[in-house]
Fold this sequence. Notes:
Layout (H helix, E strand, L loop, with lengths): L3 E7 L3 E5 L2 E5 L4 E2 L2 E5 L2 E2 L17 E5 L2 H9 L12 E4 L11 E4 L2 E8 L5 H6 L4 H8 L4 E7 L1 E4 L4 E5 L7 H10 L4 H8 L6 H10 L1
Parallel strand pairs: 7-8
Antiparallel strand pairs: 1-4, 1-8, 2-3, 5-6, 5-12, 7-11, 9-10, 9-13, 10-11
Amino acid sequence: MNRKIIHLAVGKPKEYNWNNKKEVSAIGKSVVQAVELKKSGFVGDDVANHKFHGGPDRAVCLYPFEHYSYWEEIFQKKLILPAFGENITATGMVEEQVCIGDIYKIGDTLVQVTQGRVPCATISKYNQEHQFLKKVVETTLTGYFFRVLEEGTIMLDSDITLVEKHPKEISVSFATQILFHQKQDKTSIEKILTVDVLAEDWRNRFLKLL
């Protein structure tokens, strides 16, 4: 399992002009060589809309680097990292392999997977591909979030090590598939809800489906 950070980035909200409309977003992030991670997120990082983004359950966003070649083929163009506004772009961390509740050591931090990502239209606008959001939802190639168990520093060349696999072994891919496409699957929803460390936002979403 070759887990490796390809890109590390942080950013504050900026104003964009999308379709002749001014919007504020923190999707555009800049590369850093090293950055401090707190429980609330990376130093120098923020979100524009605190109602739908950020918070302790979504302190770190990771997107699997493997998906980039797929998207570049679909849209016939080179994407500039991080195209999804992720903090960490990494190999060996695709959604099928990573389970909610898994604990990883990255640099000298300890982080835990909390939920998949629910993408919004900003992905389409930022990458100037109006089909992007629709395709991300269809494929469930969304990336995911971590909460911070131990603060510290992450560097571009930091190792990513699996410390503890969650016993329920509910992959991010499985949970996202149920949330987006199998909303009637009560058995699977109940199974996902047994993961005690599931992000509060996702717990509420699944409870609503029940």
